[in-house]
Each structure stands twice: as C-alpha cells, then as structure tokens.
Amino acid sequence: MRRLKKAASVLLVLSLPGILAPADRKAGSFSVNGFAGPCVLLGPSDFRQYYRPRVGFGGMLRYSITEKSVIGIGYLRIPYRLDRNRFEKELRDGIRLSELDVLGLHTSSLNVLLDGGGLTANLFSINFIRYFTRPESRTGLYLTGGFGYCLLDFNDLTVDGSIQGTLVDSSTGTTVPVDEPIGRITYSGGELKKNTGMENRSGLNAGLGFEFRIWKNVTVFAESKYHCVLTEAKTRPAGSVGGVGSGSLEKTGGKVQWISTMAGFRAGL
Question: What was the pLDDT predicted at 76?
Fold first, then answer.
C-alpha cells in the first residue's frame, strides 16, 4: 500500500506542469487573439512625408506545436491618412505661382480643397512564436517572427480649389480682383499607387512580446514588431503630384518599414 501511495505521489508531481499549464499552451491546442495599437512609419522617406498611420488592429489564429513553440495565421490592418498640408505644398510648387505673376496675375493665395487620398495596408502573415518561459508560469515572454503578403489599398483623391489674386487692366490701369478655379481633378487609387511606387508585395516581421494570464484560458499581452514590405524603388519626376513634376528625377518606393505596438487578449479554444 505504501509503495502504491508513493508511486501515485510521484505521478502527481510529474503531471503538475500539464495540469497547471494554460489550455492554449498545451501541445495540439488552438487559441485566438485580437489586438490593436499605434504604428510608427519608418520609411521610405517620400511615403512617410505624405502619409500618417492611424491605430492598427487585427487578430491571429494560433496552434501550439509544443508547449513553447506556436505557429499562427494573422491579419493586421493599418489605415493611413494623407498629410494634406504636405500635399498642398506640392501643389503650390507644381503650379509655380511665380510664373503666373509674370503673366500679370499677382497671386495672393491658393485655396485647395482635398477629399479622400488615404490608404490602407492589409497584412496577411504566417508567424512563429517561441516562448522563453515555462507554460505553467502566469507571465510569459516570447520572440515572434514571420512572413506574409501586404495588400495596399489606395483611395481616390479629389483636388479642387482656386487661385486668388489681382490683375492690372492695361487699358484703364485699374486693379481687378481675380478668383480663378484650378479645375476639379480626381486621381484614382491606381494612379496614386503607381506614382508613389507602392505595390502589393511580400514582407517579413520580427518582434518581442510579453503576456499575463488572468484566467486559465484567457491571457492579455503586449507585443512590439518590426515590419518590412519589400517593394521596389522606382524613379519619377521630382516634386510630382499625380505624375506632373519639375523635370528632374527622384527615387520613390523602396522598402516600406514600420514598427507596431499592439495590446490585446488571447483565449484558448
């Protein structure tokens, strides 16, 4: 009887890690997570000048290969807004108000109305996660890395406005106010995508995460990742807006890089 009790005690001790381990860390188990957070755009420089990232969000379906190795299929959506101040400056440079002065129009201001022009990055990825901590620990630290494909969706951009100034009547010598429309112009999402040099491409990511288990099957986490989409660098007319520039060439496109910092929760299935 004593030997039987001793054997049962040893078996219980050996099985404790599996009993205490959260369900989503057990080999062969599935879990799902959701997350959201800010993103910082690193490059390329021309892309960073025109667009500002908003809060990104997404989710992941995970499968535990072992208690410390996990594979996941993820989706991340990052919306970007157009930097209108920067775009208006490019328009003013493109119109060349000084040349209009030579023609007799003394310009005082350029009023521009912009509508649309944002874009959305949709990232689909396969990720590998490796834990440093034991599965029964309430806290977790892990490395993550993966690869995937990025779809860039550009919205149409409509430009409208007018050039305001004064014109001197040569016959009477009087000054006449001028409010001349520049014409309503619409750039399609495809045109913007071509002119910025941004295309749908594959990419890589790598990062570090920390988690805290609040229930056996529920964990909250924070994760920071570096993302790199391998687009090609191209050339275009310098200072171009919608394909119209000054004649010299500049590089555009190249690797789109950003850092995401996400927080969320995970639940075992």
Answer: 95
